[in-house]
Amino acid sequence: MEKSYMMALDQGTTSSRCILFDRKGTVCSSAQKEFTQYYPKPGWVEHDPMEIWSSQISVMMEAMTKIGVTAREIAGIGITNQRETTIIWDRKTGAPVYPAIVWQCRRTSGMIDELKKHPAFEEMIRAKTGLIPDAYFSASKIAWILRNVGDARERAERGELCFGTVDSWLIWKLTGGKVHVTDYTNASRTMLFNIHTRRWDEELLALFDIPACLMPEVRPSSSLFGSTIAELTGFPIPIAGAAGDQQSALFGQCCFGKGEMKNTYGTGCFMLMHTGDEPCISKNGLVTTLAAGTDDHPGYALEGSVFVAGAAIQWLRDELEMIRNAPETEAICRSVKDTGGVYVVPAFTGLGAPVWNQDARGTIIGLTRGTTKAELIRATVESLAYQVSDVVRAMEQDSGVKVEALKVDGGASANNFILQFQADILGAEVLRPSCTETTALGAAYLAGLAVGYWKNTDELKENWRLERSFIGSMTAETRAQLLRGWKIAERCACYAAEQWNAEK
To answer: What pTM, to 2 d.p., does this model score?
Structure first.
């Protein structure tokens, strides 16, 4: 039977999705299912690994059923996933020893603060991994589980447990527990992987007291990881691609060369610039990471991570109950001429690039008795663009490249108000492709190249199509005034946290 489709499993922070693509990169079928977010303590965020798995296999079957596709018609599976989220499970039974500690979780901030008291450790981490020491990454999350969960340490040292980011967990489950593996991009986000040697680093493992036998094998993002077991899919399907969501989106946007960049508006905002074969070490609060590639030399990227973006819109919907759904924010934002001087800094889990303040918390400034719900909603939506602007300016300084155009994707990129305000506040063109599912598309592309569904990256570039561009129309004076207000709000979020900690 002809292999007509590539399957992408897109396991995100708030939902699991499955998308089937054809050779033109067109979405042929999709299914999505949200799963539970757990907040056991302030600043803690957890997921149930079994719910992640059940939701992912459920949407996989749903997407196939919608168009009557069988496993025999699928050429391969690519997996893209929320990065840094940490799962440890029993090597024999597959049972997780603890809930997944999500990338947003700040429970290990104190551990990182202690480490940063020793400048030599911070310098070593930066030199080997390209990362800034932070609770965001996996290393301290693994260490926390080994320290705090029953006999986890003893079992890990006996080789009875496996660690993995979500890609590893899904591959393990899809292959019936036969394959314990990850790819370069996910490994590069653990703070335990040397991005120069492309190996788990013995010094870093020792620093966090993590047994090497816990770690998965690391392979290129485009390679044959294994096949699904017939009990799941009826017929084995090759699992041939895996990449962390942001590197996958960079690949899906066909940013294969030095200087090409994209921004994804998801739960967080993530901007990546491909820097070619040489790593660019940031002096402005960005991190260096491995890009997704088809061989053992994947190349490097500069990255700026905004922890809370789309999650701020979810906060308006779920916690404040100000909106029914995310799309309605566009009309609400246009219903008022501006925010009335209100700024929202959604530092619910600290501030990421380029500020990197673990203790900062959400802050609203500029409220008056006349402030309306619409103005507060607009200020929250505008916060996405302000945070991206911070990252863009840092990236320009590090790379020496002036950003004239920015490719965008992710759920919030469907919002025309956000993208127009982004173009205004950047003074640059914002480009939205016809297919904004570029995270999933990147995973499909990586898998498709490995199994020969697509011949090369030139063929992939032919699939990229522009849907709409947004050109900034704001005056330089207005832009500067708005950015000054944003910087004041951002400093308030950091200052309040410093004062709060001093009082404690």
So the answer is: 0.84
